[in-house]
Amino acid sequence: MENLESRYRVTGMDCASCGSKVDAAVRKLPGVTDVAVAVSSGVLKVQHGADFAGEGVLRQVRNLGYGVEVLAPLQPSAGSTMAPPGDDHRAASGPWWWTRKAKLTAACGVALVAAYIFGALFPAMERGAFLVALAVGLAPVGWRAITAARYGTPFSIEMLMTIAAVGAVFIGAAEEAAAVVLLFLVGEMLEGVAAGRARKSIQGLTDLVPKTALVEIDGQVSEVPAESLALGAVILVRPGDRVPADGDVVEGEGEIDEAPVTGESVPKRKMAGDPVFAGTINVGGVLRVRVTAAAADNTIARVVRLVEEAQESKSPTERFIDRFSTIYTPRGSCLRRPGRDRSATHVRRCVERVDLQRAGGPSDRLSLRPRDLDAGSHSGWSVRRRAARPVDEGRSRARNPGQDHRCRL
Question: What PANTHER family has UniProt attached to this entry (predicted)?
Answer without folding.
Answer: CADMIUM/ZINC-TRANSPORTING ATPASE HMA2-RELATED, CADMIUM_ZINC-TRANSPORTING ATPASE HMA4-RELATED
